[in-house]
Every structure is written in structure tokens, then in C-alpha cells.
């Protein structure tokens, strides 16, 4: 597939150039719109970053999230309500709604312009765009770009041989660059080396974040400490489960791992197989798709995660200052 790389590069570069020159039009807004996205295909930690921003802003502002709603069964604009589920709005938006439904608005629309226009009828103070970095029809006021420690964008190339959705130069549109999924201990030398490769502009800020796993597992009705699980089946349908597997292995837990592709749609055959398992641990995103099955209710638990950013006061101030402006 490598011979296709230059063609893909040229097409995506030209598309971005047309937007940069104003030949293709981007719509900007007179209220805060924050975009969280990446250059690569999946697995950078957008969902926990959106949740970080929700926690940061929800007590002071009316927050709305707008996602594409990947693999949902509906079309067009959908505003989450009491009837929402993973099939109607997608697993990640349903996760936002399940956790914050009394505090925020959650909407999906593949057309972000149309989604924002519809959300405006509900008068949000700030809109968080989930995975919209390449959606150039909308010009967010503030862009948060994520790239992983294990596979940073500056060591990658564009599709189809690499994982980049657009050329590396796209990083220059970001206001904040967060290197995600870092080791808990990251030396200043390592940070400086990564920053050197990123080569940020004067107006860009680089941060480093790591994943923090909960000590508790949750089901629809129960909460248990992770140490209570002597043997279980781990079910994942995420882009990269390596960190989760490593976390569980470090605790010397006994488990088998059923690894599905990202956003996997569980079939009846899959559910039949899972029904044979005595205890199942999964990610919060996968839990949103699996909890609808009553047969799994008493055996299905998820392990929540949060992100810890190396300089939280600074990034929090940058975000809040933008919203105030």
C-alpha cells in the first residue's frame, strides 16, 4: 500500500491548504467551541480528555458535547434523552450521557455545523467537539491535539501505510498538544526530547498525561474492589488495550483476554459465548454496549479511567481563560 501514501498525502494536504487560504470556508462562532482530536486513527485517549474538560467546566458553565456518534443506528442530529443508548447515539457519547446527564447536554451529528446550530437552541455556554480535528468546516476557537507516548505523530506517516489522517504539519493548528498514555514517571530529559521533536510554535503549549485506573470495578448495581476478582474474562473493544492488560497483569490477576476491534458490535454469537463466562471485566466504553443484555447483568463489571496531566494548573488556566474570553 505504500505507493498510495503520496497520493493520500497530497489530497489531504491540498484540502487543508484550501481551508487555510479561505478558498474552502470554515465557520467560526461567537461562543466557546473547543475541539479535542488527533492526527492519527483512534486510540489516543479522546474520551477521557473530553471527560476531563467536562469536570473542569461543568460547575461554572452549561457544557455540551458534540460527537459524530460512530456506529450508531440513527441518522442526523440526536440530542440524548432518557431513551438514549449506545445504538441511538454511539458508545462514547452514551458514556458521557450516563455519567453527566444531569449536568451537560450530549448530542451527535456527523455534520458538526448542523449539530452546533441545533445545540444553540439549548443555549450552551461552551461546546466540546469530540474527534473533530479534521472537520475543517467548523473552526473551533481552541484545539486540543492528542498524540500517544508510544506512537507519537512525528514518528508516523499518513494512511494507508501509517496511521495519520493528515500530514504532520496539521499539528500547527493546535493550541494545546497533549502527549497521552505516558509512563507514570517521565523524566524531564524525555519530555524535552519529545518537545524538541514536536517543535511547537510560540503560541502552542505541550503537556504530558497518563492514565489512572480506578481501584474499583462497577456493574449496573454493584461496586467491588479489583482485588476481589481472583479470575475473570477481560473483554475489550478499544483501539489499544495494551495499557489495560499491563495494569491487570501487574496486579498478578488471573484472566483470559477476548480482544475485539475498536467499537466492536457484539453479535448474538458473541453474547452467547460471554454468557458462558463466570465473571467479565471490560472497559467503560464497552460496558455501554454490553449492559443492555440482561443475561450479563450480574457478571459484567467495568474499570473506569481518568487522566492525570503533568501541569494541571496551567492547562486548566488556558482552557478557562479561553472560555472567559
UniProtKB/TrEMBL annotation:
<keyword id="KW-0808">Transferase</keyword>
<keyword id="KW-0067">ATP-binding</keyword>
<comment type="function">
    <text>Transfers the gamma-phosphate of ATP to the 4'-position of a tetraacyldisaccharide 1-phosphate intermediate (termed DS-1-P) to form tetraacyldisaccharide 1,4'-bis-phosphate (lipid IVA).</text>
</comment>
<dbReference type="InterPro" id="IPR003758">
    <property type="entry name" value="LpxK"/>
</dbReference>
<dbReference type="Pfam" id="PF02606">
    <property type="entry name" value="LpxK"/>
</dbReference>
<keyword id="KW-0443">Lipid metabolism</keyword>
<keyword id="KW-0547">Nucleotide-binding</keyword>
<feature type="binding site">
    <location>
        <begin position="40"/>
        <end position="47"/>
    </location>
    <ligand>
        <name>ATP</name>
    </ligand>
</feature>
<comment type="pathway">
    <text>Glycolipid biosynthesis; lipid IV(A) biosynthesis; lipid IV(A) from (3R)-3-hydroxytetradecanoyl-[acyl-carrier-protein] and UDP-N-acetyl-alpha-D-glucosamine: step 6/6.</text>
</comment>
<keyword id="KW-0441">Lipid A biosynthesis</keyword>
<protein>
    <recommendedName>
        <fullName>Tetraacyldisaccharide 4'-kinase</fullName>
        <ecNumber>2.7.1.130</ecNumber>
    </recommendedName>
</protein>
<keyword id="KW-0444">Lipid biosynthesis</keyword>
<comment type="similarity">
    <text>Belongs to the LpxK family.</text>
</comment>
<dbReference type="InterPro" id="IPR027417">
    <property type="entry name" value="P-loop_NTPase"/>
</dbReference>
<keyword id="KW-0418">Kinase</keyword>
Amino acid at each position: 500500500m505504500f505507493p498510495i501514501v503520496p497520493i493520500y498525502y497530497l489530497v489531504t494536504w491540498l484540502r487543508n491548504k484550501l481551508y487555510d487560504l479561505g478558498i474552502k470556508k470554515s465557520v467560526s462562532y461567537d461562543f466557546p467551541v473547543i475541539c479535542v482530536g488527533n492526527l492519527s486513527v483512534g486510540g489516543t485517549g479522546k474520551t477521557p480528555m473530553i471527560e476531563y474538560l467536562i469536570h473542569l467546566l461543568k460547575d461554572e458553565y452549561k457544557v455540551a458535547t458534540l460527537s459524530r456518534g460512530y456506529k450508531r443506528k440513527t441518522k442526523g442530529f440526536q440530542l440524548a434523552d432518557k431513551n438514549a443508548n449506545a445504538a441511538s447515539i454511539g458508545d462514547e457519547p452514551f458514556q458521557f450521557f450516563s455519567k453527566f446527564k444531569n449536568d451537560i447536554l450530549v448530542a451527535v451529528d456527523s455534520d458538526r455545523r448542523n449539530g452546533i446550530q441545533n445545540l444553540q437552541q439549548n443555549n450552551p455556554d461552551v461546546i466540546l467537539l469530540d474527534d473533530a480535528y479534521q472537520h475543517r468546516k467548523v473552526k473551533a476557537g481552541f484545539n486540543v491535539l492528542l498524540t500517544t507516548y508510544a506512537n507519537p505523530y512525528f514518528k508516523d506517516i499518513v494512511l494507508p501505510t501509517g496511521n495519520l489522517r493528515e500530514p504532520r504539519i496539521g499539528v500547527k493548528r493546535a493550541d494545546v498538544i497533549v502527549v497521552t498514555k505516558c509512563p507514570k514517571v517521565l523524566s524531564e530529559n524525555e519530555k524535552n526530547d519529545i518537545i524538541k521533536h514536536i517543535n511547537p510554535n510560540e503560541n502552542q503549549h505541550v503537556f504530558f498525561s497518563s492514565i489512572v485506573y480506578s481501584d474499583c470495578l462497577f456493574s449496573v448495581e454493584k461496586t467491588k474492589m479489583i482485588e476481589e476478582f481472583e479470575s475473570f474474562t477481560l473483554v475489550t473493544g478499544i483501539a489499544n488495550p495494551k495499557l489495560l492488560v499491563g495494569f491487570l497483569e501487574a496486579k498478578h490477576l488471573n484472566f483470559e483476554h477476548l480482544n475485539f476491534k475498536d467499537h466492536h458490535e457484539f453479535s448474538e454469537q458473541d453474547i452467547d459465548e460471554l454468557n458462558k463466562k463466570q465473571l467479565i471485566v471490560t472497559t467503560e466504553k464497552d460496558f455501554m454496549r454490553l449492559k443492555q443484555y440482561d443475561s450479563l447483568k450480574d457478571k459484567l463489571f467495568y474499570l473506569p479511567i481518568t487522566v492525570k496531566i503533568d501541569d494541571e494548573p496551567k492547562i486548566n488556566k488556558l482552557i478557562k481563560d479561553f472560555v472567559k474570553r
